[in-house]
Each structure stands twice: as C-alpha cells, then as structure tokens.
Write a structure and sequence with these properties.
Length: about 210
C-alpha cells in the first residue's frame, strides 16, 4: 500500500499544480480559488489540503518548481567569458531563449508583482542584482583601466545590457508579439544588432569620417 501511495501522490500533486498554473495565468491569482483548482485538477478539497496548506502554498510551490532562476543565474557566467563584452550578441540570444523556454515562470513573476508586491520573487531578483553588482567591477576592470568606459559605472553598464535583452524577450512572451518576426530577422540577428547599438552607439562614425 505504501508503494501504491508513493506512486499516486506525485501524480495528484502535479495535477493540482498544473491546474493552478493554468488558472493563475488565465484568471489571475485572486480570480482563482481552491475550489476552482480542485475542480480543474479533478480532485477533492481534501485532496488539495492533503498536499497544500493554502492557495498561496500552491503558488509558492509553482515558483519553486521552476528551473528559470537557475537558468537566470547561469547567464551571469556568460558575462565572465574572456570575450565579454564582444560576446554580447550571444548573451542576448541566450536571454531571448530563456524567456521563451520559461515563459510560464516569468508570467507567474508578473502575478507576484501585481498581487503579492513581489514578496515571493524579491529574493530571486535581489540575488541576481547582487551578482551583477559584485562581479561587474571585475568583469570590466580591464576596460576601465584602458579608459574605455569613461565615467560609466560597470554595474550600470552590465544592468543596461542585461535589462534591454530581458525586456525584449519578455515583451515577446507576454504580448505574443515578436519584433524580430515583424522585421524579418532571426532572433540571433536581432540580438546582434542590439549588441552593436549597446557597444558602439547609434550614430557610429565611418572610418573615413572627418567630423
């Protein structure tokens, strides 16, 4: 009997989580209740409370089950590549891919921002910000020493780079609208062009320009 329960409990849990995810993303957190989740998952209210203490407990379990925070932390390694910041196009493409692969996580983050004032995801965001701040000086010290960064703080530069790509990735996911598709570009081409703007500016002078 114990073996049978071990096999069935995860299935019930997954059904509850899948049902809650769908409802939270379509009706919002406050627009869904435990009875809705139970009905969608085809389990009793007792089945819900056997696995979760509350609706918020279900929501937190959904966030913790996501792999996106690990993937997000992994992006910081790309900033440590010896080629940085020349590898910025690759970083952008990777961020675009991450937002597509983990779109449900980012949508749940928006739910948290709107309905929980970010209390469940704040530690994830703060941890990533601290990584950027603590590593940015080391990442760009050689550029600073050569006078390439003028008076721009490295942490601000890295955040601008990351945030721009993340914004475009999230816009595509949330609005289901791709600027790259609209322009007839691949996402790699889109990332490369954005990287050129970040690295060299919009009004680049040609080598033969005298003014």
């Amino acid at each position: 009997m114990a073996s049978l329960m071990t096999n069935t409990e995860p299935t019930i849990q997954e059904r509850i989580l899948d049902a809650a995810r769908g409802l939270f993303l379509t009706k919002g957190y406050n627009g869904s209740n435990l009875r809705d989740i139970a009905a969608e998952a085809k389990v009793s209210m007792g089945g819900i409370y056997h696995h979760f203490d509350s609706k918020e407990d279900i929501y937190q379990a959904l966030l913790h089950a996501q792999e996106a925070p690990k993937a997000l932390a992994g992006i910081s390694e790309l900033f440590e590549d010896p080629l940085f910041p020349e590898n910025l196009g690759h970083i952008g493409t990777t961020i675009f891919q991450l937002t597509r692969e983990h779109r449900n996580f980012f949508k749940l983050v928006y739910v948290d921002v709107l309905e929980f004032q970010s209390k469940n995801v704040k530690h994830i965001i703060d941890a990533f910000r601290q990584v950027i701040i603590s590593r940015s000086d080391d990442l760009l010290r050689h550029r600073t020493e050569k006078g390439h960064l003028a008076d721009i703080h490295p942490a601000i530069m890295v955040r601008c780079m990351f945030d721009l790509f993340l914004y475009f990735g999230l816009e595509e996911v949330m609005l289901e609208h791709s600027m790259a598709d609209e322009l007839g570009l691949s996402r790699e081409e889109m990332a490369d062009q954005m990287a050129k703007i970040l690295l060299y500016g919009v009004m680049r002078r040609s080598p033969s320009s005298d003014d």
